[in-house]
Amino acid sequence: MNLDHSPDAEAYRRKVALFLDNHLPANWLGVGSMPPEEQDAFRRTWRRTLQQNRLLAVSWPVEHGGAGLSPLEQLIVAEEFTRRGVPQGGLNDNASIQMLGGTLLVYGTEEQKRRYLPRILDGEDVWCQGFSEPEAGSDLAGVRTQARLEDGTWIISGQKTWTSYGHLATHVFVLCRTDPDTTRHRGLSLLLCPLDQPGIVVRPLQTMTGEADFNEVFFDDAVCDEADVLGPVGAGWEVARTLLGFERGEATATLAAMFRDDFDQLLALADRFGRLDDPVIRQRLARVYEGVEQMRCSGLAAVTQWLAGKQIGAESSMHKLFWSEWLQSTTSLAMDVMGADAVTPAGPGLTGVTFPAAEAGALRDTGTWVDYFLRARAATIYAGSSEIQRNIVAERLLDLPRNTS
Ligand SMILES: Cc1cc2nc3c(=O)[nH]c(=O)nc-3n(C[C@H](O)[C@H](O)[C@H](O)COP(=O)(O)OP(=O)(O)OC[C@H]3O[C@@H](n4cnc5c(N)ncnc54)[C@H](O)[C@@H]3O)c2cc1C
Questions:
Q1: What CATH number has the domain bearing residue 205?
Q2: Are residues 84 and 145 both part of a single domain?
Q3: Do residue 143 and residue 60 come from a single domain?
Q4: Is there a domain that residue 299 lies in?
Q5: Which of 104, 139, 248, 346 is the least buried, fewest Cβ under 10 Å from its Cβ?
Q6: Are residues 221 and 252 in the same domain?
Q7: Is 116 inside any structural domain?
Q8: Are residues 199 and 303 located together in one domain of the fold?
């Protein structure tokens, strides 16, 4: 089996590498090596540079500001950018570009595409995902947020929760029940709604990392235009599934590059702490490396399917299980390598050892191995918990009876 890319793809890789050589400062060591107070400004400027060079949404059509390239080129961009420690986007672009942008291209009207896609790329609109509710997380079909149409305006009431970056976003795509006489998967619609309005209150939730990246969002007669429904009214479930496919699917292809980078840094960490000859640590490092290679093969298989015009489907659940558990075991190993030094204020875990944090398909962030370890706890919950992924594997891939619990 030959897992090398084609000569054309390798030529594209050289082009991307040259772009990075030309646009990154001399002696570049990665965004994590910059002083924290300079990182935000760098990220903002870098995002603009990517947009100007059509590298933000590589696989979007050219007429919508993309580069019109295939998922293979997208994978190559991810690999090269990861290797050099530079982000592939900016604030919540995972929700704005990958999830909403991808879905707008499938379901959006021409008017919606013309209106929203350029504003996403310009960074004028930053979107967040309004799916989960206090009583509807895994069981998303249980959403209770309602929207009714009055005189050409949708009026929305209800509550969303765990809304990542809701406090910084300008808009939310919100899954609502638009037909009050229905239950479960029917009668839902996906509405595109501005956040800055009297009918919306966003309340940040603090997590154990000390950050408040996600929020509760309260809708009290919030409004959006009648035309701001994505896909047919009442078909929100299908639209939401497509959107979740973009959330889970793309990660399968692009995470392998990030894992390789994490592994290299973990190896360097173990070396620095003099743990490379510890027999147990060696076994665990080998295990982590097996995962890197396994992820590389899954990524290539995913790209191959995309290139053939096929959706990854239920297999993406297996991949999600794999990468989320890999993140947790790998970051746990980093903690064991460092031992008590990980939590000593002056220790290298908190000060000297930075890394690009890997929040499953999201932006590359910076922080320490301790931050990474803490953030990785959420990986088996977001984008569908492990139990839910296993139910999907059981039902759709193994044909087992439906879970009724
Ligand atoms: C870091 C992070 C960011 C997030 N960002 C967003 C966001 O931007 N927008 C958004 O809408 N949501 C977001 N979420 C929410 C996420 O989608 C939900 O947390 C997830 O779907 C689980 O829902 P829940 O928290 O309500 O847990 P529940 O659904 O209440 O589940 C609780 C536990 O029960 C298990 N369980 C539930 N049902 C079953 C079943 N049928 N069989 C077996 N076990 C089951 C679950 O696996 C879990 O362990 C985010 C979550 C995290 C952690």
A1: 2.40.110.10
A2: no
A3: no
A4: yes
A5: 346
A6: no
A7: no
A8: no
Pocket probe mutation, ligand 1, options 162, 391, 400, max atoms within 8 Å of Cβ: 162
CATH of the domain at 315: 1.20.140.10
Say what the pTM is: 0.91
Looking at 46, 74, 91, the residue that finishes a domain is 91
- The atom number, within ligand 1, closest to the CA of 385 reads 47
Distance 146 CA to ligand 1 centre (A): 21
Q: How many domains does the chain have?
A: 3
Task: Find the catalytic residue in 80, 247, 315, 359.
Answer: 247
Residue ranges making up the domain that contains 133: 124-230
Q: Is 138 in the pocket of ligand 1 (CB under 6 A)?
A: yes
Q: Are residues 374 and 247 in the same domain?
A: yes
Q: Which of 171, 382, 400 to mutate to test the pocket of ligand 1 (most atoms within 8 A of CB)?
A: 382
391 lines ligand 1 (CB under 6 A): yes
Residues 168 and 251 placed together within one structural domain of the fold: no
Report the 3 state secondary structure along the chain: CCCCCCHHHHHHHHHHHHHHHHHCCCCCCCHHHCCHHHHHHHHHHHHHHHHHCCCCCCCCCHHHCCCCCCHHHHHHHHHHHHHHCCCCCCCCHHHHHHHHHHHHHHHCCHHHHHHHHHHHHHCCCCEEEECCECCECCCHHHCCCEEEEECCEEEEEEEEEEEECCCCCCEEEEEEECCCCCCCCCCEEEEEEECCCCCEEEEEECCCCCCCCEEEEEEEEEEEECCCEECCCCEHHHHHHHHHHHHHHHHHHHHHHHHHHHHHHHHHHHHHCCCCCCHHHHHHHHHHHHHHHHHHHHHHHHHHHHHCCCCCCCHHHHHHHHHHHHHHHHHHHHHHHHHHHHHCCCCCCCCCCEEEEECCCCCEEEEEHHHHHHHHHHHHCCCCCHHHHHHHHHHHHCCCCCCCC
